Amino acid sequence: MAWPPSKSVFLYRPFPTDGVVEIRELRGARAFGQRTCPIARIAARTAAPRSLIARSRGPPTRVPTAGTMSAPWPVREGAFKSIGQSTDPLPILMAKVSVPPKLKLKILPNEARSLKAGDLSQQESKNMAHTNMKVTTDKFSSEQTAMESQQQRQTVTSSGIFNQEKHSSSSSHVYTTSSKGLSTSATSMLQAASRQLMNGTPEEEILNTSLEDLDHLSAISNVQDVERAIHKYSTYLDVSIRCLQKMDQNKNAPSILNKINDVMRKAWAVPTYGHELGYTLCNALRNCGGLDLIMQNCTKGDKDLQFSSAKLLEQCLTTENRAHVVEHGLDKVVNVACVCTKKSNSVDHSRVGTGILEHLFKHSEETCSDVVRLGGLDALLFECRKSDIETLRHCAGALANLSLYGGAENQEAMIKRKVPMWLFPLAFHTDDNIKYYACLAITVLVANAEIEAEVLQSGTLGLVEPFVTSHNPSEFAKSNLAHAHGQSKTWLKNLVPVLSSKREEARNLAAFHFCMEAGIKKQQGNTNIFSEIGAVESLKMVASCPNAVASKYAAQALRLIGEEVPHKLSQQVPLWSAEDVEEWVKQIGFLEYAGSFSDSRVDGDLLLQLTEENLRDDIGLTNGIKRKRFTRELQKLKKMADYTSRDTANINNFLQALGPEFSIYTYSLLNAGVETKDSLRNISEDQLLNECKITNSIHRYRIMEGIRQLENGLANGMNEDNTDKTLDVFVSYRRSNGSQLASLLKVHLQLRGFSVFIDVERLEAGKFDNNLLQSIQKAKHFLLVLTPNALERCIGDQERKDWVHREIVAALSAGCNIIPIIDNFTFPEPDELPEDMRQVCHFNAVRWIHDYQDACVDKLERFMRGELNSRCADGLMNRVGLPKGDITPGTPSNPSLVRQPPSYQRMHSNDSGSGKGSDKDVNGNSGLTRD
User: Fold this and answer.
1) Domain check: are 795 and 846 in the same one?
2) Three-class SS of residue 725?
């Protein structure tokens, strides 16, 4: 008989459900075909004589069929088949057999589960099967693999029965021939089907849809799984929205919106594919009319429907959806966001309201102006007082977005509303994400020269450097989902000008962010975005500048996106070579004079000593305006230069304490021989003029004044009268759990016209800073923030090793008006405290109530001004300690300041005095727990 045979060879394999068998038919060397049929039909299929395959454990033998079969190539006798998880190959014998009266099919074990609780009953079953077949000769190879699974779930509720079935089959066929060369072809097929039946209502079918497949998606999932999820949930959104449009005020509408919100949250949270999945579903929601429906619900009287709509909206405000909202209903959305923030007893409402505002401030300058006009910024600033982590994250992100997108006009509006001051408690927070975006907002604002002075007054900019130097961009990118996917192209484009800011803090944080974004975009395969927004050249400029922090992050960003890193200039300018000087001259825009510097072999030492005469006569800068421009750049260089290679006595630190502008004289003093503190104390004003070339007489006076203070030490400060005190308030706090309250007090008092000092950088133990002690001595009022266990370390501290202990003793010695601010705090017994600080237990104190911050600060202000005496004690004033030794408030700090009575607005937080909650966690960390 010629090959292939005329008769067909059938392989029977059990299908993992009752009553079904699968038949595979092999005709010669052609590809397999497959179909399923009920067992009842098998007899009819096999009634005619055919070659049926049966299994046997014995050695393979050939049983001839009718006629003689031969093949044009050697054929191994027998075939081997593997079913399920069995590792033993089963020989398959070819033999003529009659149709058996009963077919005994080997079925894989089923997995079944049953759950019953009350009127809810759920049954689930799973079956899986796997088949592999391979035929190999010298010139021919054919392999087929098949896998099938079936899952069935039935849920019985009081409203009806919900059935869900899923079938999936996967088969692949690889066919290879060899004849005078190599030819290989491969085909694969994947089929999946799911069926859902329910005899209940359509709403219940929507609500009972399982979201397990979204939970199972991960970074290693294949693209087909993601595409199936996109198709499934795009269809789900379409069905859900059409159902909502027909319902019209149905009671299930909020539940369906919450279910859609769960879908969106899970989609965004998928690793690697989350951005694509979430973005596609947001577009699908808009295209099916869902976004319009949500905006309409924002104006409905049903509070639950309104909040469910706002909650879903907060998850869906992508770039296109923001544009749709701005065009079709911005006022509705801003209004519902403001309504959510005024819901003082709900943290969830605050999170949703601030989240919506965060997205809306990321659209355009015009939109930012509209949102500010509609009250969005005012609502946002009030939320900055709260202690919920997620709410404050939204606040910090929203203010960063407004500073980037708002333009100069809205930045002016931010200054009028004292936004830099409100950024201080955010940048001072213990949560890194809150701190980061608050720092980002303040650096963007300080880059605007028109408002730089107001920004510097807030003191917030000083919190940027500690963050940048203590964090790693790549690790920070993974710390929170909010920035795990990176920022948009427009957002990054608005940040590019900050790289060119003259403020070192602004350049540092901008470079930090671009370094973080470079890693994210590299992982996404989207590094071209940096060239498109013009960031590459700016990064190269920063990478080559003598700013150690900014240049490091900029160079790292360039390496991540595959760009060349330029020549790096060290911050130790005195050690520069002539080539370094030439490179710096080119960077500051004096390319035509770079050759003159090179010909004169000007190195770093000579560069710092250049005079105007040198520039005019030796370098050839005859144009007076150009010389002023060059001198301005040279002075900037002197301010940022690192002089540690020569400055062993820290002369530069002394000058910087007088003011940043005084550091330009550091190298002049060092070259004149002022290299020790003794020589600094003995210098005269004439020597500053003649030897050190300090021609500014006012600067000479300030330096001499600083030298006298250094010479006298702190002796004179202890004898100063209270009327000579120049600082209104010094705030002392325990870093572990008092920083948030301390920073809030600082903002509240500054807004009322008081000058406030708060130590933002604690030094190591044993290095009690003289400047800190001087600040206490110059302060009229000493606010002691007492949070839980704030004085615990003071107990038994006879050697004054504790910071708070030292500050209290210094305040008592300086005669400050000490006012404890107690927040969930109980004083220890006076005898437990060291004798030098026991008086603190006898002072009147203000109990801090987070829900009534304005009222608390108003009482504090009256206390500081002397309007309340030792006999005054009401709901907010508490007598603390013993009945003797009261201290009446001292002289008001600003008697000319007259203020209208403030309007009080209740806000939600964990009430310190309620005993039901606290804004501290079990470890005493402030603001780290969710409400």
Assistant:
1) yes
2) coil
* Integer Cα distance of 818 and 116 in angstroms: 65
| pLDDT at position 310 over 70 | yes
Q: Supply 346's token pair.
A: 């709900």
In this structure, are strands 845-847 and 90-96 parallel, antiparallel, or unpaired? unpaired
Nearest alpha carbon to residue 906 among 853, 837, 831, 838: 853
How far is the CA of 557 from the CAs of 149, 433, 492, in angstroms? 47, 21, 14
- Total tally of structural domains belonging to the chain: 6
Residue 554 pLDDT greater than 60, yes or no: yes
Rounded distance between C-alpha atoms, residue 728 and residue 749, angstroms: 10
CA dist., res. 89 & res. 102, Å (int)? 25
Q: Which amino acid is at 717?
A: G
pLDDT at residue 106, as a whole number: 43
Quick check: is 757 in a domain? yes
Nearest 5 degrees, angle CA 657-CA 660-CA 663? 85
Same domain for 446 and 523, yes or no, is no
| pLDDT, tens only, 341-375 | 887 678 999 999 999 999 999 999 999 999 999 99
Tell me if 917 is assigned to some domain.
no
CA distance 420 to 22: 73
Q: pLDDT for 728-754, tens place per residue? A: 999 999 888 888 899 999 999 988 889
**Which one-letter amino acid corresponds to residue 874?**
D
65 CB-near residues (< 8 Å, 6+ apart): 5, 7, 51, 94, 96
Q: Which one-letter DSSP state was computed for residue 570?
A: P
Average pLDDT over residues 653-658: 88
Please, which residues have CB within 8 angstroms of residue 788's CB and are 6 or more apart in sequence? 737, 823, 824, 825, 918, 920, 924
Same domain, residue pair 858 and 784: yes
Query: Other C-beta atoms within 10 Å of 162: how many?
Result: 21
User: What b-and-e string marks burial along 723-756, b requiring 16 or more CB atoms within 10 Å of the CB?
Assistant: eebebbbbbbbbebbbbbbbbbbbbbbbebebeb
Whether 116 maps to a domain, the answer reads no
- And the tokens for 613? 């005469």
Is residue 154 pLDDT above 80, yes or no? no
Asked if 397 and 541 sit in the same domain, the reply is: no
Instruction: Say what the pLDDT of residue 68 is.
Output: 45
652 burial type by CB count under 10 A (0-12 exposed, 13-18 middle, 19+ buried):
buried
Q: Could you list the active site residues?
A: 807
Are 811 and 725 spatial neighbours (Cβ–Cβ below 8 Å)? Answer: no
Place of tokens 């408002």: 451
Q: What pLDDT, on the 0 to 100 scale, is given for residue 206?
A: 85
**Which domain-ending residue is among 406, 425, 451?**
451
Residues 164 and 211: beta-carbon distance below 8 Å = no
Which pLDDT band, with edges at 50, 70 and 90, does 148 fall under?
A: low
Query: Based on the domain organization, do 339 and 440 belong to the same domain?
Result: yes
Number of residues written out for the chain: 931
- What is d(CA 415, CA 128) in angstroms, rounded to the nearest whole number? 66
Residue that the structure tokens 């929170």 belong to:
480
* Domain CATH number, residue 614: 1.10.150.50
The residue range of the domain holding 558 is: 516-568
